[in-house]
């Protein structure tokens, strides 16, 4: 019996059959192909995987996000039923740390309706092992989030959603595509220029060779969640690397085994991501009726929530680990580490005051 075609074979076959594909289509196949996509394979996290996220660096990150969540629940009057939804929960580490703190608040555990949006079978198993006591439910779409207030947490989720790329030429804007050149995958341009009116005002007059990345999938997810929150109450917290205002610049990158990798070389075996346009997410949330709070750096967000005091307390309780705790805090908050590159975004029901987003 012949071996089934690999994901690179399937992608090349589709290009030969139907022509070059958009960058968004290529990313979608690489990351979420039903059987061979990157996020359908083994656990990509940790030292043995391709990258390490903030919750894996220190429990402090999740504990402070747990305080953020329970504070908003209290501001909403401690509703008897409240859905907490995490997008892309990884190994469940962030949520486990969050709930260890949040469930100390009287009534929160009884109100909790925990939902997780995840597609990786290996990670779902790890999430279940860590979170089974909280009766989690895994969802495949955003129409099954309950009827009560909704609190959404998304750490390094939006950067992994497919983007489209457009290149400014002397003839106007053209979409960037993935095709085959002498049998090898290569970038090219669609021959048909786009009407100038379809480009955001912020980039419409960009210089030749400028690249604009449109995260249409991300804004669609934000729009759908924001409309639910607008109707039912709640907030959306997204922490990711990105930029505050819509701009040009190529940020699509591949990561494999903690090193940069060619985004076209190994479909399905390489993590693909792009910086998040938080301005576009804010526009989507604002149109749904939410209050979009000023974007802050991850460092400022964690500092305002008390990471300094938490690190000190952990160091006193575990003197043998004090140096590791201090190093973890630095990695999360130092400007040359994750502190400035990563941003915290919050859109919430009018009247809520999300902790960490104001002095």
Description:
The structure is a single chain. The chain is of the alpha/beta class. Helices cover 35% and strands 23% of the residues. The protein contains twelve helices and 17 strands. Strands 2, 3, 4, 5, 10, 14, 15, 16 and 17 form a nine-stranded mixed sheet that branches. Strands 1, 6, 7, 8 and 9 form a five-stranded antiparallel sheet that branches. Strand 11 and strand 12 form a beta hairpin. The longest helix has 17 residues, at 59-75. It is globular, with a radius of gyration of 21 Å. The model has no long low-confidence stretch (mean pLDDT 93).
Low-confidence sequence ranges: none
Q: What's the mean pLDDT score?
A: 93
Strand composition percent: 15-25%
Biggest β-sheet description: 9 strands, mixed
CA-atom Rg in angstroms: 21 Å
Helix and strand pattern: HEHHHEHHEHEEEEEEHEEEEEHEEHHHE
Gap from first CA to last CA = 65 Å
How many helical elements?
12
The percentage helix is: 25-40%
Structural class: alpha/beta
Q: How would you describe the shape?
A: globular
Got a strand count? 17
Q: How does the SSE layout of this entry go?
A:
Blueprint: H1 7-18, E1 21-22, H2 23-32, H3 54-57, H4 59-75, E2 82-87, H5 93-102, H6 108-111, E3 112-117, H7 121-131, E4 137-139, E5 150-155, E6 164-169, E7 172-181, E8 184-189, E9 211-214, H8 216-232, E10 234-243, E11 253-256, E12 259-261, E13 271-273, E14 276-277, H9 278-287, E15 291-292, E16 296-297, H10 298-305, H11 307-317, H12 322-333, E17 342-348
Parallel strand pairs: 2-3, 2-5, 3-4, 5-10, 10-14
Antiparallel strand pairs: 1-7, 6-7, 6-9, 7-8, 10-17, 11-12, 11-13, 15-17, 16-17
């Amino acid at each position: 019996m012949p071996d089934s075609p690999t994901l690179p074979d399937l992608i090349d076959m589709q290009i030969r059959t139907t022509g070059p594909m958009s960058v968004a289509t290529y990313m979608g196949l690489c990351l979420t192909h039903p059987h061979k996509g990157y996020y359908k394979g083994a656990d990509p996290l940790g030292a043995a995987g391709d990258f390490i996220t903030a919750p894996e660096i220190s429990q402090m990150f999740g504990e402070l996000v747990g305080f953020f969540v329970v504070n908003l629940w209290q501001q909403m009057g401690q509703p008897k039923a409240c859905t907490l939804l995490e997008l892309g929960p990884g190994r469940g580490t962030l949520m486990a740390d969050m709930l260890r703190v949040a469930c100390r608040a009287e009534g929160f555990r009884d109100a909790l309706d925990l939902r997780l949006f995840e597609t990786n079978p290996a990670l779902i198993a790890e999430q279940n092992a860590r979170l089974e006591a909280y009766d989690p439910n895994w969802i495949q779409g955003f129409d099954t989030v309950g009827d009560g207030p909704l609190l959404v947490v998304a750490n390094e989720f939006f950067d992994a959603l497919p983007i489209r790329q457009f290149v400014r030429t002397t003839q106007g804007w053209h979409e960037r595509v993935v095709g085959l050149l002498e049998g090898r995958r290569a970038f090219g341009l669609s021959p048909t220029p786009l009407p100038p009116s379809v480009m955001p005002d912020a980039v419409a007059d960009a210089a030749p060779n400028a690249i604009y990345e449109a995260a249409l999938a991300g804004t669609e997810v934000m729009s759908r969640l924001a409309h639910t929150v607008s109707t039912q109450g709640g907030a959306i917290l997204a922490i990711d690397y990105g930029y505050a205002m819509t701009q040009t610049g190529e940020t699509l990158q591949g990561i494999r085994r903690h090193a940069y990798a060619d985004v076209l070389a190994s479909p399905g075996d390489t993590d693909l991501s792009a910086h998040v346009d938080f301005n576009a997410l804010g526009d989507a949330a604002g149109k749904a009726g939410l209050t979009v709070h000023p974007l802050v750096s991850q460092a400022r967000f964690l500092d305002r929530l008390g990471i300094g005091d938490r690190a000190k307390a952990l160091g006193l309780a575990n003197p043998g680990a004090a140096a590791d705790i201090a190093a973890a805090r630095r990695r999360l908050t130092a400007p040359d580490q994750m502190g400035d590159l990563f941003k915290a975004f919050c859109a919430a029901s009018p009247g809520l005051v999300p902790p960490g987003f104001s002095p």
